[in-house]
Amino acid sequence: MTIEEHALPSSAVPPTAGPVSTAHAVGTTAVSHFASPAARVRRWQRAFATLLAVTDTVVVAVAVFGAQVLRFGTGSGDAGVFGVNALDVEIAYTAVSVIIVIGWLIALRVVESRDYRTIGSGTEEYKRLTNATFGFFGMFAIAAFLLKAPIGRGYLLLSLPIGWVLLMLSRWLWRKWLISRRLKGRLMSHAVLVGDRTSARHVARQIQATSSAGIKIIGAITERGTTEKSLTDTIPVLGEWGRLLEHVDRVRADTVIVTGNHSLTPRQLRELGWGLEERKASLIVAPALTDVAGPRLHSRPVAGLPLIHVDYPEFTGGKLILKRSADIIASTLGLLFLSPVFIVTALCVRVTSPGPAFFHQERIGVQGQPFKMLKFRTMVVDAEQRLSSLLDASEGNGVLFKMKNDPRITSVGRLMRRYSLDELPQLWNVLKGDMSLVGPRPPLASEVDGYDQWVHRRLLVKPGITGLWQVSGRSDLSWDDSVRLDLYYVENWSMTTDLVILWRTLRAVARTDGAY
Questions:
Q1: For the whole model, what pTM was predicted?
Q2: DSSP letter assigned to residue 113
Q3: Where is this region: Disordered (predicted)?
């Protein structure tokens, strides 16, 4: 049986002919007359985790034994024998490779890198892969030092990056496969929302906007349960809280999501949890917090209350030093290796239109400090003087001027914008420290003057060449969406997030989505 056969959607399962449940209140035991929907979900989740385990094993083995072959050749199995001085024994590198493979796989298991709650969306899966990989190699290096084992550094330096890259790539490919199935309605959890209409509608829209989340909202249960008015165009109201579990059984949901704003008593919530436990269904509590990423949330039980602590964003310290170091290294390498592209692009700009190859414009950086942003010129020299005559034709969002067929853009400039080549000189701004590789969009002073007070939080970090705004729609985004994405980045930035954004930027540029 395939993974997808384990995960038939609820609509594919015929409804029961008899009474669904004897439950008439939150938390009472239900007598089920059909196979548990939650069991069906768990089956495909276990099958998918097994496939990931097999892939991880193959990838790790290929990386480690491949590094052994690259370092020591394809001689006998005893090639590269070395002595472990502390134990006065000799061990072949083949045996060491087996130990590394087993230890690496155990590390991946310990950090729960295949947990169904993390696979398929977000960066947590990649963080766990990274933590397991570097944590294991760190412990292995310490053990080798304590045992005075002279293990070849080239062997380890090949195993680590090759294995890490292959693990990340394999998980990314599996994620693409999983998302493709979810876009077709397969391999999904079927959830019911519980809460007042306003909060339930907000949670529903957030989940529906993320196709990779793997959650399909099939109904809502509200306090009064007015079924005549749906929650949204696609989400009906099933009924009221007094018969909550009966509604869950009737639609064969495997997940219940309790939104932050509700009037359920603590007793009702406990009984709901007990009832869902009997059904092996998942209970998710969505707190009334918006755009706060997982690393800033910490649960701490106090007197039986699962209190959620929310950390404030960090704009100083080691993380910032690491980010700046990465910016310096990447921008330096970029300027060196892309210098031929710079020369060719500059010549094309100068030859095809009169004026300089580069364009300087004042933008507002971190803490509101102005700086001169550098770009390749994509418009005619007097573009800013012509702007006032085009404002009425703007296709923007009321704050930013946007125009798909802007007559000021040169033919070469349009090509450069399509592939974001005009942004490359900003690597110099990154090297100088005015910008970062990843960050909020660098605004004009006129835009900052029109900011609401809370939008000024975009200026707490350096603006970036790319950011969530670019990988989520580029020029097609509305102003509100652009601000929301920038603020989300400011509140939750991390090095892992930066790496994911850079990867998504390359894909967005290759597709030329929303670029004009």
A1: 0.68
A2: T
A3: 1-20
